[in-house]
Design a protein that fits this description.
Blueprint: H1 2-6, H2 20-26, E1 33-35, H3 41-54, E2 59-63, H4 67-75, E3 80-82, H5 84-97, H6 104-112
Parallel strand pairs: 1-2, 2-3
C-alpha cells in the first residue's frame, strides 16, 4: 500500500510510531488522515495522544485485534478502528450477497499479487 500511494504523490511513511524520528518525519501536525495498520494497543494509544496534541483535525484510523482494545481506542479519540476479523467477515458477506462467487478466482489472483 505504501508503494501504491507513492504513485499518487501522497506523503506516506512506514515505521514504528514509538520512534521519535518517525514521529517527526510523519508530519502528523499537517496530516488530514492518519492510518495505523499496527494492532499494538500501546503504539496506537501513543499515536492518538500525539494527534490530540499536534493535530486533532486529522481523521485517525487504527487497528485492534479485539473488541476490548477497540473500545479503548474509540474512548481515546480514534475516528475508526479496524477489526480484521470483522472486516474479513464483511468482505466475504459482500462477495456472497453480490453473487460474486463466479469471480472468486479473479479475487484470489488479485490478492496473491500482494504476496510477492
Amino acid at each position: 500500500m505504501v508503494e501504491r500511494l507513492k504513485d499518487k504523490n501522497v506523503h506516506r511513511l512506514f515505521g514504528d510510531i514509538a520512534d521519535l524520528d518517525i514521529q517527526e518525519r510523519a508530519k502528523i501536525d499537517e496530516a488530514k488522515v492518519v492510518i495505523s495498520t499496527v494492532p499494538d494497543i500501546e503504539d496506537n494509544l501513543l499515536l492518538l495522544k500525539e494527534l490530540k496534541h499536534e493535530n486533532r483535525k486529522a481523521k485517525i484510523v487504527v487497528m485492534a485485534l479485539d473488541f476490548r482494545d477497540a473500545k479503548t481506542l474509540y474512548k481515546e479519540g480514534a475516528d475508526y478502528v479496524i477489526l480484521p476479523h470483522l472486516a474479513g467477515g464483511r468482505q466475504i458477506a459482500k462477495i456472497i450477497s453480490e453473487n460474486n462467487l463466479d469471480n472468486i478466482e479473479k479475487l484470489k489472483l488479485k490478492d496473491q499479487k500482494y504476496f510477492s
